[in-house]
Amino acid sequence: MGDVLAVVEQRRGNIRGVSFEVVSVAAGIAQGMGGTAHAMVIGGGGVSSAASDLGRFGAGKVLAAESDALVEYHPQGFAYAVSAAVKAGGYDAVVFGATAQGKDLAPRVAALLDVPLASDITDVQVESGGIVAVRPVFAGKAFASVTFSASPALVSIRPNVFPAKENPAAGDVEAFDLAGLDPTAWTMQLKEFQPSGGGSKDVAEASVVVTGGRGMKGPENWGLLEGLRDALGEDAALGASRAVVDAGWRPHSEQVGQTGKTVAPKLYFALGISGAIQHLAGMRTSGTIVAVNKDPDAPIFQVADYGIVGDLFEVVPRIAEEVQKLKAGD
Fold first, then answer.
1. Which of 205, 264, 290, 294 has minimal CB crowding within 10 Å?
2. How many Cα atoms sit within 13 Å of 80 on the Cβ side?
3. Which stretches in the chain have pLDDT values below 50?
């Protein structure tokens, strides 16, 4: 049949941007296999109202699994819901986002279904009726093409790698029966949910990203980048290199790169970042890249659209000042 299930993420009733990419990938796989893409959204009562846009990206049907026990993400509850839907629907493939939630959920579903999982993939094709997924290995220095020895094939896609393509489908919303859900049998209980980043824009979803590296010299200098971020507006977010996060200067939620988050903003600032291959793997698909570094031979300049060789402590305030002038109409 070739039907494919896309597992959608939502927060407080809002569909996350990566989920449109997930649905789009599922639709592409389903088309190659001669089937239909379905989407599944899980949450508390009324979460189905958030699913109206999923049909626009290729979901022929949307399964809404609603329960008061699933208002917040719960590993065992969500894994049960997805695995139950896969069994009931007879899907040949399931697509997740390789987000923090997806990296926790997808392996649990794979274990419940006793099938393999290809995680953090950057490409996927249907060849001779089977799925071939491509995923980075050795910290992005090489890529492996993998096939699946069991069905359904489970994959999680790296965010901001697959564009969300509009491919209108019916998008009919149906309630999914969670009669077998038994929260009393769960071996873990959710006590509290605290969003990371203090409510600031998620670096993976921002249209402008201001990222700092070791050239910032210390966490006490991050106010410089915050000033530029604030000048750029509410859709700008702060990012950090792995070296900065490893040093404890910034939280891991801001890390951009192979072992952090993949970003694809319209505008990316690389400030005091040399441009190691692991960092480039997480940001090179950005629309416009602006780099500031004292070293004229820094690898970051090879991918930058605009490069400034200079002291970032002098350059960044000037950029912020000019941005503020432009926004003020001066």
1. 294
2. 20
3. none
Q: What is the pLDDT of residue 144?
A: 94
Residue 195: the pLDDT is 65
The tokens for 84 are: 């139950």
Both tokens of residue 281?
């793997």
What is the reported pLDDT for 275?
94
**Which pair of tokens denotes residue 143?**
């890529």
What domains, with CATH codes, occur in the chain? 4-185 (3.40.50.620), 199-328 (3.40.50.1220)
* Total-model pTM: 0.82
Cα–Cα distance measured from residue 152 to residue 50, given in angstroms and rounded to the nearest whole number: 27
pLDDT by residue (tens digit) across 253-264? 999 998 888 898
pLDDT at 110: 98
Which residue carries 């050795």 as its tokens? 138
Q: What is the pLDDT of residue 208?
A: 96
Q: What is the 3-state secondary structure (H, E, C) of the chain?
A: CCCEEEEECEECCEECHHHHHHHHHHHHHHHHCCCCEEEEEEECCCHHHHHCCHHHHCCCEEEEEECHHHCCCCHHHHHHHHHHHHHHHCCCEEEEECCHHHHHHHHHHHHHHCCCEEEEECEEEEECCEEEEEEEECCCCEEEEECCCCCCEEEEECCCCCCCCCCCCCCEEEECCCCCCCHHHCCCCCCCCCCHHHHCCCCCCCCEEEEECHHHCCHHHCHHHHHHHHHHCCCEEEEECHHHHHCCCCCHHHEECCCCECCCCCEEEEECCCCCHHHHCCCCCCCEEEEEECCCCCHHHHCCCEEEECCHHHHHHHHHHHHHHHHHCC
Predicted pLDDT of residue 197: 55
Distance of CA 5 to the CA centre of its chain: 18
CA distance 273 to 175: 48
Q: What is the pLDDT of residue 193?
A: 74
